[in-house]
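Dear colleagues,

I hope this message finds you well. In preparation for our joint manuscript, I am sending the Receptor for retinol uptake STRA6 (Rotaria magnacalcarata) sequence together with its predicted structure, so that both groups work from identical material. I would be grateful if you could confirm receipt.
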Amino acid sequence: METVIDDKQSCSIHNPCGTNGYCVDNIDDEWSCRCKFWWNGTLCDEQTNSGKQVIALGCILGAFLIVFYGLNIFYYISHKTNKPKQDTKKKIIVKNVKQSIRLGPFIILLLTLMLATLALIAKWSLLKPIHDTIIYQYNNNLPLYYVPNRICSIMTMNAFNVLTFPVACCLILICIVITKRISLFPHQCHGYIAPPIPVDFLSHIDRKFASMIFAICADELFGIVRSFFSNRSSSNSEGIILQYLERILEVLIIGLRYYPLLATVYLDTVLALACGTIYAWLDFSITIVNQAMCTSDYYFTLDEYSTSDNGSSLIEKLEYYGTDSQLLVIELCTDIPRFLCLAYVGIKLPALLISKIYRQLRKDALSLEDQILLKLTREERVILRASQPDSSEMLYLRNLFRSTDQRLCTQHRFGQLIPKWIYEWRDDFYFSTRVLCVYSSTILLIFFITVQACVQILPTLHSIQKVIQEFFNLLSSFGNTDEDIMSSATESKPTNSQFPVPNLERPYALAVVTTVLIIVVQSLVMLANIRRNLFQSFRGDDSEIPRRKPSKYISYATGNMHFAGYFIGYLIWGYILIAVFASLLWISIEALIIYRNAQLLESILKAIIPSLLLIYFKAYLNKILAQYVFLQHAGKVLAIKNRRLLMIFIYFNFFLDAFLGFISSIIRLIKSVIAGMIYMCRLDYSPLGRKLELFDGGFSAYCGFIHTECAHRHPIMLVFVSHILRQCKMKQFAHDDNLIGVTIQNNRQRIIMPKEKRNRSLRTIRKWHLGLLLARNPMIVFFRKAYLNRLHMNDIQPLDTLDSDDPNNIMNQGMSTHAHYRSASHASVASMMNAQHRSNGWLNGN
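The corresponding structure tokens are as follows:
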């Protein structure tokens, strides 16, 4: 309500409206009071009936909240008091020995920190003259650009590194020559010349090294994205398609540059590691020189100066951060993660080379088991490692026969520091290499985006504030009278606006912190969900991930390919949405705290507060009645009591909820939008709901990733395959007279015996193991080759329906089982079972 009073005193001198209203001057030198919320009167000192009713409803809702949660706390305490005390000490079968700090990783960490520090000092010495030149030009009003060194024209030619790329291609050719083929033309060229594998994404071998390489690639990809958008904002004669193709070519070049580093580690030979070490140090040195003297983050060359509005952004940064060394320190701090990754690569490769040379020199002193392992391929050694007693797969198998309180505690010191209610570190599971590569890339990506969001946007917040203020003034002008518009046009103070925009520095900083916290928490929750969903898939639980279907295998394969890219893309888009939403939220809170004047927000709150109070009043009333009136044992069991009262309540509630449902649908839409923004960076969550979740590309990619990981990294399958491979290798090496009787498992005592006697003994052991396996697993007898060969065509057809999508799959499985019984009718075991079955049927018939 607004009342006009004739008084010569303006609102800037005298404010009679108090804290419950806004004092507004008009063009006739009169002032009026615009009352806040539910206040009324000439001086906004009276409450309206609506305000009193809202306060009463809020008090009743508060009483319901106290009663509901008070009763819940009372029942919880009483139940916990009456519950008998149990022994909370875990019954550990085998106590783990605390793992001591290993010297090798500690030395690598120390050398990495030292090398990264030296790299930062080197970049400081190269970048300091450029910084001094820019500051001198700024103080003398000269163009703000520097002339790069002549070496820059040698290293780069049209954004193409002509030094490291040819060396990388040469190293790739060397890796191709020394790589052995496995199945394709194995006898041609002595089995050599094959494209090397860069990373085995389905294993957890050398995953730390691979994650560092992918983190470095993420840094360079972020630079390509920045240059792409900066070129689009400037005038460019090239077409959009050519720009896209140019960026794709740059991405492929980055992949080819770091491909040999990964390939040399995977090949694990002295020649490959030596070449990789030389290339890593060459690339590290050129990177330091290139980023310090040729492509600085904040200082412009002549070409960049001409395409950046004559260095206006650099002028804003110098005015905001000053002309001292602040901007130089910011650039060096931004390079810390990048140089740490490069330093780790430069230290890890020589360490692997030295370790490989040391093992080669001590080859004769190694045990027979280690000598045999040296003759195997990398893939075979990875598979054989699954059946080692201390492997994660074997520990998973042991935990299958243990209860939760008997599970072994983790041996990792870092895992012991994390409380179990936050995250339980388990030694029977390792994330695959791809998961670590994706998360290392996203961590550095979040870091670089956050740094650039702070460094680039903070100097421009003052101009952004003016634009936002004009936008809200224009938005609030709709619906105002002509007199209000003319009155607001004569005022220049932000407090007279319906939504005054405060200083944006503090809200923006809080928004960035909020965004980073939400993104990091959501990423860690998704990491924990990956492990949980894999465990569920291992045991056949489809409560969260849809059941695997043969008709979806192609979709799973394509989704598995898209997993990493989709995760990074969804994370970036989620970061932007959360940052915008958090900025608006903190700006609104800042305006309410500082100015206490936000008429636009007050009008919105005035419209939604009564509806929210009514909905939550009805919701908590239903909860109290459901728990303590309509359910037995205070809601502990789903059994109705007071049936007559419940039917009467449902009858009247039938029509009442129709009006509340309309408001609830709007709230549902708002919650969906907010939840979609917050959970945008999560691929394991689909905002489309359970029935439509497979139409979500991100969730489909996540399902494909989980199913592929489960099919290729199932611990039971890996241990079984490892055991079979171990037996095959034992047979293969048994032809050597020097290795007769040597086993390569579990460090057992080796027994030397004649070859013929050993073969007879092995056949007897295999037959005994087969009989024991069939006795403990009777259904396996129907899958043996001898029985399957006796099947007729009519019997084979039901076998194809075991894994089909037919809803009558249960019937098909029954038919398949019947076919198995028919196929084994001539076998001794099956004959006994059928004879027993026929005798039981004859007795029942008689």
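For the figure legend, we might mention the following. Residues 715-770 form one domain. The CA atoms of residues 92 and 408 lie 6 Å apart.

With kind regards,
E.M.
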